[in-house]
Write a structure and sequence with these properties.
The complex is a heterodimer of chains A (about 350) and B (about 230). By secondary structure, chain A is α/β, with parallel strands linked by helices. Helix content of chain A is about 45%, strand content about 10%. The relative contact order of chain B is 0.10. Classes of the chains: A alpha/beta (about 350), B mainly alpha (about 230).
């Protein structure tokens, strides 16, 4: 199928995305592994696009990782979700945007459960009231943070300093988009483009000048598996599924992988390191890996933010091959510095993966 | 006393996840777990819809129900709108409620999950927190994590995070009111009870096997559940 026809298919799934006034919910994983990414997102939405987005100190986890690992009952998760919505109500917002794809699935699953099983809504309201004294209203608009970047992709492009184009050759960079399973596989109608042809990241690639890579395992899970990754004994599940994707995409020689789920971004970065060290196999060129970015890191990079101010030094797969292709100016001596150029040493080098 | 079948059917995820399976195997074809382990969601769904008490009990005490990765790819593709991933959630809940989870190696591993992500939630307000992640437990984090972990205060300061601070932002200290609310919600809705049950069964199992048992993630029993 030609790309134009596929894009028409993608457009069959659209969703409402509020234009302004958002309550922002942070991610357990993204905060830790990519600790600048959410603030890049807030800067783009709040400062570059002049939208009202609220970052509440009182918010917490949604417990989604624990729920999907079988540690907490769904009744607990629904009530924690209700608590998050109550905090949003108290702050005066009605549009909820979350950073985590697992959370997006959790919030959507709770709302759907309340709709189709009204007793669960009644029970959740009563449990929240008894435990915290709070009441809540369901958000008018519930979206993932990548939905907002998609909605404003043209505005981002108009302000961008760089495009997804090889600065030397003028050719579009080849970009793999990886969509977290819980973005649209649970509720296809809640994802831009649905589950089979999600367009939420492909639309960024198209708008920002890159070329999509359509490879056989494009829709396969990264392999998080919740309890499968979180237990050291079970982790083979995770790396095996990521490897299936890497082996499938390798012949297309991608310049970059982008993902909207923090877990997926982490796994696609770290399992390349692991596979290189264990098997000696690398997926980029000349012994490097394929750089893996979150959507907001990519947007920040194209907007001209310093790569070391947005945390790209914390990726295990080196991002320099991508920076060089994009023509991004960067100071290699500043990569591992702290605040005010403090010398923090540098990480040890992997034995096999070139960094 | 309710039968296992009655208890399972009382879970709305079974109502939602199991209509009538036609055994087409589409779920198995798309399943990431089926590709890397002896897991077959088609068989799980077929066993559940047999409505046989003994068969259900065998399933609840088996490793099988713990092999699913909850990606929910099965939900997208099932032509009859069954959701094997939801059925698995209901089976796991019932397995813990009845204590049958202790009869499988994978079920016993819930102890290590409770001791890590479960306790992180009530300590930090999030499932994951940088202070608890090291390359001994997570070697795939790589040398960049060792450098980041060692220098986290300075690095997070440079990146504008609020590490350990009473403010908004990444990795902040969650206000006491929110932490108390999380604990009260856990008490009210069954999570605390589930945690206690996993702990009690774990302690008894450790004693039975003569394995060192203590708090946190340094005792021999935790390591056995986490690593082996």
């Amino acid at each position: 199928m030609k790309a134009e026809a596929k894009n028409k298919n993608w457009l069959a799934y659209q969703k409402e995305i509020a234009n302004d006034k958002y309550y922002f919910a942070r991610s357990c994983i993204r905060q830790n592994v990519f600790p600048a990414a959410e603030d890049v997102f807030l800067k783009i939405i709040g400062q570059e696009l002049s939208k009202d987005i609220y970052d509440d100190a009182r918010q917490t986890t949604c417990t989604g990782i624990a729920y999907h690992s079988g540690i907490v009952p769904f009744e607990t998760t629904m009530t924690v979700v209700a608590h998050q919505f109550a905090l949003m109500n108290e702050a005066g917002y009605e549009n909820f945007v979350c950073s985590c794809v697992t959370s997006f699935g959790i919030y959507s699953e709770a709302v759907e459960s309340w709709h189709f099983f009204p007793d669960t809504l009644k029970n959740t309201r009563e449990a929240l009231k008894r435990s915290t004294g709070k009441t809540f209203e369901i958000p008018r608009n519930l979206v993932h943070a990548s939905d907002l970047i998609f909605k404003f992709r043209e505005e981002v492009a108009s302000k961008a300093k760089y495009r997804l184009v090889n600065a030397q050759t003028g050719e579009p960079l080849k970009v793999v988009d990886h969509i977290g399973c819980h973005y649209a596989k649970i509720f296809p109608e809640k994802g831009i483009g649905g589950a089979e042809y999600p367009y939420v990241l492909a639309g960024l690639i198209d708008e920002w000048g890159g070329a999509q890579v359509d490879y056989p395992e494009r829709r396969h899970c990264c392999g998080f598996g919740f309890r499968q990754y979180l237990l050291k004994s079970n982790r083979g599940y995770s790396v095996a599924n990521s490897k299936k994707k890497f082996d499938s995409m390798k012949p297309y020689k991608p310049d970059l992988i982008i993902a909207n789920c923090p877990g997926c971004t982490f796994f696609l970065d770290r399992w390349q390191y692991t596979i290189a060290e264990m098997e000696g196999e690398t997926y980029g060129t000349n012994g490097y890996g394929i750089p893996v970015l979150t959507y907001e890191e990519l947007a920040g990079l194209l907007l001209g933010y310093d790569p070391w101010d947005i945390g790209l030094q914390l990726h295990q797969v080196s991002v320099e091959p991508l920076l060089d292709k994009l023509g991004v100016a960067y100071d290699p001596t500043n990569k591992y510095k702290g605040l005010y150029n403090a010398d923090l040493g540098r990480p040890a080098m992997p034995e096999r993966l070139k960094c | 006393m309710d039968s296992l079948i009655e208890k399972l059917k009382a879970d709305f995820r079974i109502v939602e996840g199991l209509r009538a399976c036609i055994n087409c195997g589409t779920c198995t074809a798309i399943c990431p777990a089926a590709g890397v382990s002896d897991y077959d969601p088609r068989i799980v769904v077929d066993l559940v819809q047999q409505n046989n008490e003994a068969t259900l009990k065998e399933l609840l005490r088996s490793d099988t129900i713990w092999l699913c990765g909850e990606c929910l790819s099965c939900k997208t593709r099932c032509p009859r709108e069954n959701v094997p991933g939801y059925i698995i959630q209901a089976l796991r809940s019932l397995s813990i409620e009845t204590g049958l989870f202790m009869e499988s190696k994978q079920g016993r591993k819930q102890f290590a999950l409770k001791r890590t992500i479960g306790e992180h939630i009530l300590k930090y307000g999030y499932c994951v927190y940088i202070d608890e992640v090291n390359t001994e437990m997570y070697p795939e984090q790589g040398p960049v994590w060792d450098w980041y972990h060692k220098n986290r205060e300075q690095i997070l300061e440079r990146l504008g995070a609020s590490y350990g601070k009473e403010a908004s932002g990444s990795l902040r200290k969650i206000p006491e009111e929110s932490m108390n609310n999380l604990k009260k919600i856990f008490d009210e809705t069954g999570a605390t009870k589930r945690f206690e049950k996993i702990e009690e069964y774990g302690r008894a199992n450790a004693q039975q096997q003569g394995i060192d048992f203590g708090p946190g993630n340094t005792c021999d029993y935790f390591k056995k559940m986490y690593e082996e």
